[in-house]
Amino acid sequence: MATLARLFNRLSLSSVPKNIRCTTVRSISLESLETLLNKPKPGGGKSYRRIVHYPEEYTIEPLRVTNLAGRDPATGRLVAKGIGGGIKHKYHWIKWVRDGPSEGPPQIEKVIDVFDDGCRTAKVALVAVGNEMKYILATENMKAGDLLKTSRFIPRIPVRANEGDAYPLGALQVGTQVHCLEKYPGQYCHLIHAAGSYGTILRKFGELVVVQLPSKQEFAFQQICMATVGRVSNVAHSKTPIGSAQKNRELGNRPRSGLWQRKDGRHGRKVRRLPPMRVISPPTAKPAEPLKLSIKL
Q1: For residue range 42-69, what is the model confidence (pLDDT) as tens digits?
Q2: What is the structure's pLDDT at 187?
Q3: What is the value of pTM for the model shown?
Q4: For position 23, what pLDDT does the model report?
Q5: Most distant CA pair in the chain: distance in Å?
């Protein structure tokens, strides 16, 4: 801050030239802003828990997984301490894009099965539409045989959607619970995936829709961003205790090294014996002052 203050003090405004032309400011459309701004691409972080071997094309076959146990796949060095062990699960490839017709009636999809997935906290639903089958995140009350609707059309009157339906934010009513939300139009639905989480549509203004995320933060998204209606399944996940150390190892969590000892102060807090009790005597009472009485005779 001090450096910036010195730089601003050095700046001096010279006399304003007289040959300045006044130009009108033109409004910039959203399409031109998309070409000018470099939007961040999701999925740039690294996870040292597992490597999923993805094929070239989408498939519903369970994918092969290589567990890393917190180690770098190239060097083998330990990067993340708290990861290790765990049951080796097959990975079910979720199709994060819920694409539907932009005009006319919505696309109807049927739920074939709902099951647990060891690589994520929420349940997974197998959905069929036409000649295609795909995996999506299951909602709280989703069951086999349900019919889901998917559409990109924004009507004049908001639709009354059911759990599992996918619509743009502009087509849903205020107060609707949503998950699998697009951050930018056309990208994957990579927001609100955890078990039992949901976002709430608060208000609309112009071409933007304000959504409250599970972190209680409010963000404005474009009304053409797709979202899935309902709450993510496995609501009791955050309130279910692990129960035992063996279950914690099955989840892939490595225990501490054992160097932390509470009593002797090695990498921890030293527990000292309480000091001996002190007897505090009550305060001594002050002697009573003599009372002098005088009588006028």
Answers
A1: 666 778 889 999 999 999 999 999 999 8
A2: 85
A3: 0.71
A4: 46
A5: 125
Torsion of CA 283, 284, 287, 288, to 10 degrees: 40
118, 146 contact by CB (below 8 A): no
Q: Is 137 exposed, middle or buried (0-12, 13-18, 19+ CB in 10 A)?
A: buried
- Residue 270 zone, left/alpha/beta (φ > 0; ψ -120 to 50; rest): beta
Tokens of 133: 């089958």
Judged by DSSP in three states, 208 sits in strand
Helix/strand/coil (H, E, C) string of 15-34? CCCCCCCCCCCCCCCHHHHH
Checking if the pLDDT of 268 tops 90, the result is no
Dig out the tokens for 19 from the structure: 């040959």
For the four alpha carbons of 196, 210, 148 and 185, in that order, the dihedral sign comes to negative
**CA distance linking residue 275 with residue 174, whole number of Å:** 62
What digits encode the pLDDT tens for the residues 220-265? 999 999 999 999 999 999 899 999 989 999 999 988 777 777 778 7
The SS3 assignment for 253 reads strand
CB hemisphere CA count around 80 (13 angstroms): 19
**Distance between CA 86 and CA 75 in Å, rounded?**
21
Beta carbons of 148 and 165 less than 8 angstroms apart: yes
Cβ neighbourhood burial of 17 (10 Å; 0-12, 13-18, 19+): exposed
In this structure, what token pair is assigned to residue 61?
A: 């076959």
Task: List, for residues 179-226, the tens digit of each pLDDT value.
Answer: 999 998 888 888 999 999 999 999 998 889 999 999 999 999 999 999
